[in-house]
Each structure stands twice: as structure tokens, then as C-alpha cells.
Amino acid sequence: MAGVEFDRQAFAPASAPTSSQGKLLIRLTSSVLLVMALGLVCYVGYKVYLVNLNNTAVTSANEEIHWLQQQLGDMQKRLDALERHKKTAISEPIPNPEPAVKPAKSDPPTRTLYRIATASALPAQPKPSNQPSNPTPTHSPEIDGQVAANREAWEATTNRLADVVGVVGTQQGEISATREAVNQLLAQTRRQAISFELDKSNNRVNVGPVTLQYKMVDTKAQRYSVCVAFGNERCIELKDRALNEVVVFNVAKNTAPLELVATRIQHGQIAGYVAVPTSLQ
């Protein structure tokens, strides 16, 4: 039987865990316990902080309430003091004013005595003599002549005044006619300048009461020619006019004259203004 071999390890009992695994398990258990302890400490500290914070807020609120109560008490004391002062001022009697000094008595005025006499004591007056109630005045020839002279002078003055009134009326009519003539003259002299621009492209341009038409331009000599029309009448040509020349013309009979002035002359273009009386506008 010496040649038969057996595996002794298969029949041997399982060995206990090694020492390294036990150490690892102990470490894990201690770490978990440490974490739990730290969490418990943080929770307890947070609760303690909340309690302290609430106590601080309550303390500050109590202090503020106490300060407000002190202020109210001071105000109440001041009001009580004012009321007492007012009551004492009302209760104090008003001192009597000093009696006014009476003026010294002056001596009574002296009286004037009048003595009345009876009518019998008056002296008798003589009676007037019998005279007519309406005596007829006697006129002398000198007075009659003076009255006649005054009457003649008064009539002469009246006639002269009538003549003066007639002359004044005539002069008033002349003054009115002169005023109307002056107004017409002023209306003719009052003018309004209306600007215009003419060139070859536009045939006719309305400038106030007239119509202007371009004719010719000489830029070297600064001369121009235009045609002026009033209403439906024929065109009046203003030939060979210079720059800034005042051209006076009439567009109709019994009307105020117009003035045309060219202020700029260029190639194929004329610019200027027309002075139109206010009576024609």
C-alpha cells in the first residue's frame, strides 16, 4: 500500500480568512462611522446656529420696542407739562390796568351875553314917497346912437362870419380832393418787387399782372430783350436793355407804370424782378 498516494489538501478543512481582509473590513467600518459622526456634528451645529440667530433677532426686537416705549413716555411727559402750563396761564388773574389820569379841569368858557331891545325902542323910519312902480327910463340921443352903432357892428360881424364859414367849407372840399389825390399818388408809389427767371425753354412766365417772354441775350455786352404782355393785349417788346437798368413801362391807359430790372444775365437765361404798384395787385 506504500505505492498509493492521497491528496491531503482535499480532505483538509477550509482555512480561516487571512488577516489582510479583516484589516480592510475594519477600515471600511471605521470610515463609515467617522462620516456618520461628522454628519451628526454638522447637523447639531446648524441647529445651534439657528437657535442663536433667533435669539439675537428677538433680543434686537425687544431693544427696539423698549426704545420706542421710552420715546412715547417722553412725549407723554411733554404733553402733560404743556397742559399744566396752559391751565396755570388760564387760572392766573389778569391784572387791572392802571387808572387813566384824569385831565385837569379847565376853566369854563366865558359866555357872551346878548341884550334884546323891544321894537318900540327903535327909532321911527320915514315912509318912502309915492313913486311909480315901473318908471319909464328916459333915453338920451347919445345912447340911441350908440345902440344903433352896436347893432350895425353886430350885423357886419354876422355877415363876415357867414363869409368865413363859406370859405372854410370850400377849403374843406379842396382839402378832401387833395387828400384823395395824395392817397392815389401814394398807392402808385407803393410797389412790391416780384422776382422772375426767363430762359429759352419756358415760353411765357406770369409775373404779377404781366406776362414776360424771353427774346434775346448778349452775355458779352450784358444786354437783353424781353416781351411784356398785359392780359389779352399784344406783347410790348423791350429791346436792347442793360443789366440793372430800371425800365419803366405802362401796360394800359390810366394805370400806374411798372418797373422791370434784370439783375443777372447768363447764356440763355435772364433773372430779375418787376416792381408792381399795390393798386394793380
Q: Can you describe this structure in just a few lines?
A:
The chain has 281 residues and is an alpha+beta fold. Helix content is 45%, strand content 21%. The protein has a four-stranded antiparallel beta sheet with strand order 1-8-7-6. Strands 2-3-4-5 form a four-stranded antiparallel beta sheet, with no helix packed on it.
Q: Alpha-carbon distance between the termini?
A: 163 Å
Strand % is: 15-25%
What structural category characterises the helix and strand content?
alpha+beta
Order the strands across the largest sheet as they lie in space: 1-8-7-6
Report the total helices: 3
Q: Kindly state the mean pLDDT as a whole number?
A: 76
The radius of gyration is: 70 Å
Largest sheet: 4 strands, antiparallel
Shape: elongated
Q: Level of helix content?
A: 40-55%
Residue ranges: pLDDT <50 for 5 or more in a row? Answer: none
Number of strands: 8
State the order of secondary-structure elements, H for helix, E for strand.
Answer: HHHEEEEEEEE
Task: Describe the 3D structure.
The protein is an alpha+beta fold and 281 residues long. Among the domains are: 23-91; 190-280. 45% of the residues lie in helices and 21% in strands. Strands 1-8-7-6 form a four-stranded antiparallel β-sheet. It has a four-stranded antiparallel β-sheet with strand order 2-3-4-5, with no helix packed on it. A hairpin with a 5-residue loop joins strand 4 and strand 5.
Could you list some keywords that capture this structure?
281 residues, alpha+beta, four-stranded antiparallel sheet, 45% helix, elongated
